[in-house]
From TrEMBL:
Cofactor: Mg(2+); Mn(2+)
Top-level EC class: hydrolase
Limits of the PPM-type phosphatase domain: 61-355
Family: Belongs to the PP2C family.
UniProt KW Magnesium keyword: yes
GO molecular function, one term: metal ion binding
Protein name: protein-serine/threonine phosphatase
Keyword RNA-binding annotated: no
Gene that this sequence comes from: BnaA09g03950D
Amino acid sequence: MGYFSSMFSGFARSFSIKKVKNNNGTSDAKEAADEMARDAKKKEKILKSCGYVYADGSNNSASVFSKRGEKGVNQDCAIVWEGFGCQEDMIFCGIFDGHGPWGHYVAKHVRNSMPSSLLCNWQKSLAQATLLDPEIDLEGSNKKLSRFDIWKHSYLKTCASVDQELEHHRKIDSYNSGTTALTIVRQGEVIYISNVGDSRAVLATVSDEGSLVAVQLTLDFKPNLPQEKERILGCKGRVFCLKDEPGVHRVWQPDAETPGLAMSRAFGDYCIKDYGLVSVPEVTQRHISAKDHFIILASDGIWDVISNQEAIEIVSLTTERPKAAKRLVEQAVQAWKKKRRGIAMDDMSVVCLFLHSSSSSLSQHVHHSTTFK
């Protein structure tokens, strides 16, 4: 991705925050932060003109694959952006699962706008934190404002602004359409996870017993989750299953059999936003250890038929990293045909983010209790 980094000559340097040496206080800090934000906004045109950095194909640090289901156009899309913000130790990954008549447009719009907006907000938040408190130690144990706080604030602001922008988009009708957004920023040895919707992130790590085990990093935000249902009911929305879909809980308007949304958080879907649907992300972090090998981000079509443990075994048994995401999708397609016969297959998208450079096989950590053909 060297060609991409060269486009931003000098951009990375803007992330090295200089301390304010005068006594003008908050006004100078705000002015400097605003200037940095304006600079980031200028880069936004370049980001959008390039589309996305890496979304079709794979390399050694990440593997990406998406397959259209049987419901029409593929409404899933993904992104892997290496050297995020021109920082060598940063990478941005995301899975976006659209739904509704305009879902594929909504998903691509959010995918294309979220990274640049997040960069802008992160840059501004970092500048404000540093300039308002020149002695701040983002690594120290007694810090008032941690790196996590800055990323969380940036994500919350980004998701709010992206959703607001989408609502007023002149060319995309998102009143009855929307998308999920599951994204990860890796910065050094820490990952920051933002989840809006029901796509899922699963970590493959080695247990104390030496076997490879799955750790689910996100919640599937379904309407029947207690905290989600409480919010929806409090906003006069309804949550129930259709008779021919037992176990599939959906969000409905108070007095109409619409929209029947099978998730409790999403971008778009403004027909239900007043009744409990939100685009607020759950933001979490995890420190990467030597035992952590890779993270799988996947849309719900995968998890409908593949368990967390099965997914990490499939990826770990794939000898060539670039083929890992495709192999997981292929196995999910086969599982769908067996487990959900007669039901139209969903779109399926996967990003596998490998956490270490070692290309050694993980097969010795896997209990071969499951056979994958």
